[in-house]
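Q: Hi! Curious about what unspecific monooxygenase looks like structurally. Here's the sequence.
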Amino acid sequence: MDPAVFLVLSLSCLLLLSLWRQHSARRKLPPGPTPLPIIGNILQMDLKDISKSFSNFSKVYGPVFTLYIGTKPTVVLHGYEAVKEALIDLGEEFAGRGSFPVAERMNKDLGGIFLSSGNRWKEMRRFSLMTLRNFGMGKRSIEDRVQEEARCLVEELRKTNASPCDPTFILGAAPCNVICSIIFQNRFEYTDQDFLTFLKLLNEGINILSSPWIQVCNNFPVLIDYFPGSHKTFMEDMTCIQNFISEKVKEHQQSLDMNNPRNFIDCFLIKMEQEKHNQQSEFTLENLKYTVGDLFAAGTETTSTTLRYGLLLLLKYPEVTARVQEEIEHVIGRHRSPCMQDRSRMPYTDAVIHEIQRFIDLVPTSLPRAVTRDVKFRNYLIPKGTTILTSLTSVLHDDKEFPNPESFDPGHFLDKSGNFKKSDYFMPFSTGKRICVGEGLARMELFLFLTTILQNFRLKPLVDPKDINITPVVNGFASVPPPYQLCLIPV
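A: Let's find out. The predicted structure is below.
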């Protein structure tokens, strides 16, 4: 047979097989746009703003619909009711981790917390939560650490001498040092070159992960191995971070006291020793490295990006900033550090912080999940292992719960009397079984860092507030604010 004819026949067979598989799988799945062979629905999506694409699809196919990312189906949950029904009411069934090929190339064992599923995920999450609590998360001791770091942050900001500055790395250093104090039992000076390099790698990683190219790579993993691009930079950065963590682990192994754990790494190493005869133990050096990396990723970039975006919004809306500073003056004054007890007496400030998180919609679709078994959901059958994407945007920007959701308005979290108003739709940390491990710490840091900054400085923009751009520069994995500078005037 002529080679050209053979090639055409082979490609035709692959095409027909792809079409047959897609047709068979689609019969019981939720409805969705007709996918193209091989590439699925990728051409019908705006990779620069996936949330907008999801919103458009939901208007046609309803709150639960199916997209084909390449040849594999992905079920999308859009709107509060669908998200709640799946992630809370059927939490166990929707607690798997979906495919994340770019990250998986760096973590082939799927260790740690973020990429793991099943027993490994349960073990790592349970241990991490217990250990973080033992070292003070949610208690007064961790609040002391955050307050101390807030004071260091203020001193570093004073060194700008009210001159224009880009706050990116200073705001990244503060939450990173809090995590360092839990993981390593020590903080770093803001000028430490190794620390600055570490922060640069974390910051670059979140920007790359949010780019359209990474969305393409995640949809077509073959590109990761055979094509150049920013995914290569991401993997190089992550390798450097893992090497940094590995060196710290080695240092801890050499100085470990089994009877006196100093930090998270010590506790993990002690647990490893206790389970060394258990062949199925999840407590391995690889899992330690990945778990620590996950805690840094969750505890540094998410909080620092929210702080950075928050200051940009406060520059844009000086009337909001003035009201927050008035409340700080009234409740806290100038001569003591803010503490978490203050929050209950500062409803407007609390509302502003919630509105910052709601408005910026930091992680629009959260991390992909997967169903852990065949699930009947709203009369559809979702097979075990199917990837699930949750549109947190559709919940945080619900126009019935938050009138004019595209507007920045602290009133979304205030009742008619000016008291703080909770909302079940507030899900910036996701919800259900895989809600962010560090939610409590992040809430504490956002309140203490922002109030301490506003207690000590007046924010001065370099342009007229009406000309400040608050549109995210990328809106893939995370919503990243545009770069900006500001002047911090001591008060």
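A: A fun detail: Residues 179 and 299 are 6 Å apart (CA to CA).
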